[in-house]
Design brief:
This protein has about 230 residues and is of the alpha+beta class. The protein has a domain at about 45-210: NADH Oxidase (3-Layer(aba) Sandwich), CATH 3.40.109. It has helices at about 25-40, 55-65, 85-105, 110-115, 125-130, 155-170, 185-190, 220-225; strands at about 75-80, 130-140, 140, 150, 175, 195-205. It is globular. The mean pLDDT is about 95.
Protein backbone atom coordinates (compact mmCIF):
# COMPACT_ATOMS: atom_id res chain seq x y z
CA UNK A 1 0.00 0.00 0.00
CA UNK A 2 1.46 3.31 -1.08
CA UNK A 3 1.63 6.22 1.36
CA UNK A 4 -0.03 9.42 0.21
CA UNK A 5 2.17 12.46 -0.19
CA UNK A 6 1.15 15.95 -1.40
CA UNK A 7 1.26 16.29 -5.18
CA UNK A 8 1.94 20.03 -5.22
CA UNK A 9 4.36 20.83 -8.05
CA UNK A 10 4.78 17.24 -9.17
CA UNK A 11 4.74 16.48 -12.91
CA UNK A 12 1.76 14.81 -14.54
CA UNK A 13 2.27 11.06 -14.19
CA UNK A 14 -0.59 9.01 -15.71
CA UNK A 15 -1.27 5.39 -14.88
CA UNK A 16 -3.52 2.88 -16.72
CA UNK A 17 -7.17 2.66 -15.65
CA UNK A 18 -9.00 -0.46 -16.77
CA UNK A 19 -12.10 -1.04 -14.64
CA UNK A 20 -14.19 -4.09 -15.36
CA UNK A 21 -17.11 -3.15 -17.58
CA UNK A 22 -20.45 -4.34 -16.22
CA UNK A 23 -22.82 -5.76 -18.88
CA UNK A 24 -25.83 -3.50 -19.55
CA UNK A 25 -28.41 -5.90 -18.09
CA UNK A 26 -26.43 -6.27 -14.86
CA UNK A 27 -25.84 -2.53 -14.74
CA UNK A 28 -29.58 -1.90 -15.01
CA UNK A 29 -30.27 -4.28 -12.12
CA UNK A 30 -27.58 -2.72 -9.94
CA UNK A 31 -28.79 0.82 -10.66
CA UNK A 32 -32.42 -0.07 -9.94
CA UNK A 33 -31.50 -1.79 -6.68
CA UNK A 34 -29.34 1.13 -5.58
CA UNK A 35 -32.10 3.59 -6.41
CA UNK A 36 -34.62 1.61 -4.35
CA UNK A 37 -32.28 1.23 -1.37
CA UNK A 38 -31.25 4.88 -1.34
CA UNK A 39 -34.87 5.99 -1.62
CA UNK A 40 -35.34 4.40 1.82
CA UNK A 41 -32.65 6.63 3.38
CA UNK A 42 -33.99 9.05 5.94
CA UNK A 43 -32.44 11.48 8.38
CA UNK A 44 -33.18 10.41 11.95
CA UNK A 45 -32.87 12.29 15.23
CA UNK A 46 -33.43 9.44 17.67
CA UNK A 47 -30.72 6.82 18.03
CA UNK A 48 -30.45 3.49 19.80
CA UNK A 49 -27.70 3.03 22.35
CA UNK A 50 -26.89 -0.35 20.78
CA UNK A 51 -23.20 -0.54 19.93
CA UNK A 52 -22.08 -0.21 16.33
CA UNK A 53 -19.05 -2.11 15.00
CA UNK A 54 -16.29 0.46 14.67
CA UNK A 55 -15.04 -1.12 11.47
CA UNK A 56 -18.35 -0.39 9.75
CA UNK A 57 -17.89 3.31 10.49
CA UNK A 58 -14.23 3.20 9.45
CA UNK A 59 -15.12 1.52 6.15
CA UNK A 60 -17.78 4.17 5.49
CA UNK A 61 -15.21 6.90 6.12
CA UNK A 62 -12.83 5.10 3.76
CA UNK A 63 -15.54 5.28 1.09
CA UNK A 64 -15.93 9.00 1.79
CA UNK A 65 -12.18 9.48 1.52
CA UNK A 66 -12.25 7.97 -1.99
CA UNK A 67 -14.25 10.97 -3.22
CA UNK A 68 -12.92 13.18 -6.00
CA UNK A 69 -11.39 16.48 -4.92
CA UNK A 70 -9.88 19.48 -6.65
CA UNK A 71 -6.23 18.79 -7.56
CA UNK A 72 -6.55 15.57 -5.53
CA UNK A 73 -5.89 17.62 -2.39
CA UNK A 74 -8.36 15.55 -0.33
CA UNK A 75 -9.09 18.51 1.99
CA UNK A 76 -10.98 16.64 4.70
CA UNK A 77 -10.47 15.25 8.17
CA UNK A 78 -12.99 12.89 9.78
CA UNK A 79 -12.85 12.87 13.58
CA UNK A 80 -14.61 9.90 15.22
CA UNK A 81 -15.98 10.60 18.70
CA UNK A 82 -17.36 7.87 20.95
CA UNK A 83 -16.31 9.11 24.39
CA UNK A 84 -19.48 10.05 26.34
CA UNK A 85 -17.87 13.04 28.05
CA UNK A 86 -16.66 14.53 24.79
CA UNK A 87 -20.05 13.95 23.17
CA UNK A 88 -21.70 15.67 26.14
CA UNK A 89 -19.34 18.61 25.78
CA UNK A 90 -20.17 18.93 22.08
CA UNK A 91 -23.90 18.69 22.80
CA UNK A 92 -23.78 21.37 25.50
CA UNK A 93 -21.93 23.79 23.23
CA UNK A 94 -24.16 23.00 20.26
CA UNK A 95 -27.36 23.55 22.24
CA UNK A 96 -26.03 26.88 23.51
CA UNK A 97 -25.43 27.97 19.91
CA UNK A 98 -28.91 26.80 18.96
CA UNK A 99 -30.55 28.59 21.91
CA UNK A 100 -28.96 31.85 20.84
CA UNK A 101 -30.05 31.25 17.26
CA UNK A 102 -33.67 30.62 18.21
CA UNK A 103 -33.71 33.43 20.78
CA UNK A 104 -32.28 36.01 18.40
CA UNK A 105 -34.70 34.95 15.70
CA UNK A 106 -33.98 32.92 12.62
CA UNK A 107 -36.42 34.77 10.39
CA UNK A 108 -39.99 33.91 9.54
CA UNK A 109 -39.12 32.34 6.21
CA UNK A 110 -36.48 30.07 7.77
CA UNK A 111 -38.83 29.12 10.61
CA UNK A 112 -41.49 28.19 8.05
CA UNK A 113 -38.95 26.14 6.10
CA UNK A 114 -37.79 24.04 9.08
CA UNK A 115 -41.18 23.68 10.77
CA UNK A 116 -42.03 20.44 8.89
CA UNK A 117 -38.77 18.96 10.20
CA UNK A 118 -39.87 19.21 13.83
CA UNK A 119 -36.52 20.55 15.00
CA UNK A 120 -35.70 22.69 18.03
CA UNK A 121 -32.68 23.67 20.13
CA UNK A 122 -32.58 20.33 21.95
CA UNK A 123 -29.99 17.97 20.41
CA UNK A 124 -30.13 14.62 22.28
CA UNK A 125 -28.87 12.81 19.18
CA UNK A 126 -25.42 14.27 19.87
CA UNK A 127 -25.11 12.14 22.99
CA UNK A 128 -27.45 9.25 22.16
CA UNK A 129 -25.70 8.13 18.96
CA UNK A 130 -22.80 5.72 19.55
CA UNK A 131 -20.57 7.77 17.25
CA UNK A 132 -20.23 11.35 16.20
CA UNK A 133 -18.29 11.94 13.02
CA UNK A 134 -17.09 15.53 13.00
CA UNK A 135 -16.04 16.58 9.53
CA UNK A 136 -13.39 19.26 9.12
CA UNK A 137 -12.39 20.93 5.89
CA UNK A 138 -8.74 21.81 5.39
CA UNK A 139 -8.42 25.32 3.98
CA UNK A 140 -4.73 24.80 3.24
CA UNK A 141 -1.94 22.30 3.87
CA UNK A 142 1.53 22.72 5.31
CA UNK A 143 4.41 20.77 3.81
CA UNK A 144 7.47 19.36 5.56
CA UNK A 145 9.29 22.69 5.12
CA UNK A 146 6.48 24.64 6.79
CA UNK A 147 5.28 26.10 3.49
CA UNK A 148 1.53 26.70 3.20
CA UNK A 149 -0.32 25.52 0.09
CA UNK A 150 -3.83 26.75 -0.62
CA UNK A 151 -6.57 24.19 -1.20
CA UNK A 152 -9.07 24.81 -3.98
CA UNK A 153 -12.84 24.21 -4.18
CA UNK A 154 -12.77 22.92 -0.62
CA UNK A 155 -16.51 23.22 0.08
CA UNK A 156 -17.37 21.35 -3.09
CA UNK A 157 -14.83 18.60 -2.45
CA UNK A 158 -15.85 18.05 1.18
CA UNK A 159 -19.54 18.16 0.26
CA UNK A 160 -19.08 15.36 -2.28
CA UNK A 161 -17.14 13.33 0.29
CA UNK A 162 -19.86 13.74 2.93
CA UNK A 163 -22.50 12.66 0.42
CA UNK A 164 -20.54 9.47 -0.21
CA UNK A 165 -20.23 8.96 3.55
CA UNK A 166 -24.00 9.15 4.01
CA UNK A 167 -24.50 6.67 1.16
CA UNK A 168 -22.00 4.21 2.62
CA UNK A 169 -23.52 4.46 6.10
CA UNK A 170 -27.04 3.88 4.81
CA UNK A 171 -26.05 0.92 2.64
CA UNK A 172 -24.28 -0.54 5.70
CA UNK A 173 -27.50 -0.41 7.70
CA UNK A 174 -26.77 2.67 9.79
CA UNK A 175 -28.65 5.90 10.21
CA UNK A 176 -27.16 9.37 10.26
CA UNK A 177 -27.97 13.04 10.57
CA UNK A 178 -26.02 15.95 9.10
CA UNK A 179 -25.92 18.58 11.84
CA UNK A 180 -24.61 22.05 11.07
CA UNK A 181 -24.27 25.04 13.36
CA UNK A 182 -23.30 28.66 13.05
CA UNK A 183 -20.77 29.21 14.43
CA UNK A 184 -18.98 25.87 14.85
CA UNK A 185 -15.58 27.17 15.95
CA UNK A 186 -15.89 25.43 19.32
CA UNK A 187 -15.48 22.04 17.63
CA UNK A 188 -11.87 22.75 16.68
CA UNK A 189 -11.13 23.65 20.29
CA UNK A 190 -12.89 20.63 21.77
CA UNK A 191 -11.24 18.22 19.34
CA UNK A 192 -7.82 19.93 19.28
CA UNK A 193 -7.71 20.48 15.53
CA UNK A 194 -5.01 22.59 13.83
CA UNK A 195 -5.64 26.12 12.60
CA UNK A 196 -5.93 25.09 8.94
CA UNK A 197 -9.07 23.04 9.66
CA UNK A 198 -12.60 24.38 9.94
CA UNK A 199 -15.63 22.40 11.08
CA UNK A 200 -17.97 21.45 8.25
CA UNK A 201 -20.59 19.22 9.92
CA UNK A 202 -21.31 16.96 12.87
CA UNK A 203 -22.81 13.59 11.87
CA UNK A 204 -24.32 11.35 14.57
CA UNK A 205 -24.20 7.70 13.48
CA UNK A 206 -25.93 4.61 14.84
CA UNK A 207 -29.02 2.45 14.62
CA UNK A 208 -32.40 4.19 14.78
CA UNK A 209 -34.21 3.91 18.11
CA UNK A 210 -37.18 1.54 18.11
CA UNK A 211 -39.61 4.43 18.52
CA UNK A 212 -38.03 6.56 15.77
CA UNK A 213 -40.37 8.67 13.68
CA UNK A 214 -39.47 10.88 10.75
CA UNK A 215 -41.27 13.74 8.97
CA UNK A 216 -43.75 12.62 6.33
CA UNK A 217 -41.88 14.03 3.37
CA UNK A 218 -42.16 13.52 -0.38
CA UNK A 219 -39.09 13.71 -2.57
CA UNK A 220 -39.21 15.45 -5.92
CA UNK A 221 -39.91 13.07 -8.78
CA UNK A 222 -37.20 12.27 -11.29
CA UNK A 223 -38.97 14.42 -13.89
CA UNK A 224 -38.75 17.36 -11.49
CA UNK A 225 -34.98 17.13 -11.06
CA UNK A 226 -33.81 15.94 -14.50
CA UNK A 227 -33.71 18.08 -17.62
CA UNK A 228 -33.00 16.21 -20.85
CA UNK A 229 -31.31 19.01 -22.68
CA UNK A 230 -31.43 19.05 -26.45
CA UNK A 231 -29.86 21.89 -28.46
CA UNK A 232 -32.19 23.99 -30.49
CA UNK A 233 -32.16 23.27 -34.23
Amino acid sequence: MRTWTPMHGQPYSPTPYRPRRIPPDASLRIAADLRERMDQRRTVRTFSADPVPEQVVLDAIAVAASAPSSAHQQPWTYVMVSDPEVKAQIRAAAEEVERRTYAEGIGEEWQAAVQPMGTNEQKPHLTDAPYLIVVFEQRYSVDADGQKHEHYFVDESVGISVGMLLTALHLSGLAALVHTLSPMRFLADVLDRPCNERAFAVIPVGYPAKDTVVPDLVRKSLDQVVVRFAPRP
